[in-house]
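Troubleshooting entry. The earlier prediction with S-adenosylmethionine gave an output that would not parse, so I re-checked the input for stray whitespace and re-submitted. Clean input:
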Amino acid sequence: MTQQVKFGDCRKLIKSLDDESVNLVVTSPPYNIGKKYGEYKDSVTLEEWKELISDITSEVARVLTPNGSFFLNVSPVPDKKTKEIIPLDSVAYFIAKEHGFYLRNAIVWNFNNMQNPSQRLSGRWESIQWFVKDIDNYVFNLDDIRVPYITKNDKRLDPNGGRNPTDVWYFDRVNNMTKKKLNISEFPCIYPTPMIERIVKMSSSKGDVVLDPFLGSGTTLIACENLDRNGIGFELDRGFEKVIKQRLSNETKIQSKLL
Ligand SMILES: C[S@@+](CC[C@H](N)C(=O)[O-])C[C@H]1O[C@@H](n2cnc3c(N)ncnc32)[C@H](O)[C@@H]1O
């Protein structure tokens, strides 16, 4: 399989992709909370954030195949001035509707190991919205993502089966010890690879094309290489080239062909 990375603004880079040439888009845009991502200064206003999401969503709608899916991961974030929590998933939902998408599932990604504020409850979830272009025609490989039954000893259960993983997913965040081991300590916001592998298995087939317009440290391409999909990633910050290459050679089953 080939994994391609292009550096620059995804809103421009995506214009080079043909209509209906991508089977699956999975991404996590910047969350507007002042995280340090190297070149990208994540301190835009909510209006600017909405414009970014709207611009990319419009192009995602164009490049996706008619049965394609768009997975958008965002988090509820505190407003920098008022400290009110802004439900970015709700904001993104209405933008996706404007571009013709249907919400197929609103997945809750639950995790531990995050900050514990003293003035409100500790945040322990992010949202992954699964959008489809056609509510009657989309890829859903349920058998590829089944999880072990809770009641393992029930003889009526098919030993090769497993249950639907539901719309509440627990995946540990990538903690500092793992980052140190993988030599990627400088990067703040890395997807857990098994979570992206679940999405790639669930909503694409071998040989398909998967796009991540906000690639970051390259997790989506690692999932693609391990699962025999062709990946395309766009990233604003060229400073991440080294970490993406390093992860692709250290964390994939074979030495990947990076274009
Ligand atoms: C939340 S991080 C993605 C993390 C990624 N899921 C991972 O596992 O490493 C968002 C990324 O989007 C990048 N970015 C921000 N604006 C961008 C734009 N207009 N075009 C391309 N990348 C952008 C940032 O530099 C940052 O690396």
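This one parsed fine. Residues 46-63 form the longest helix (18 residues).
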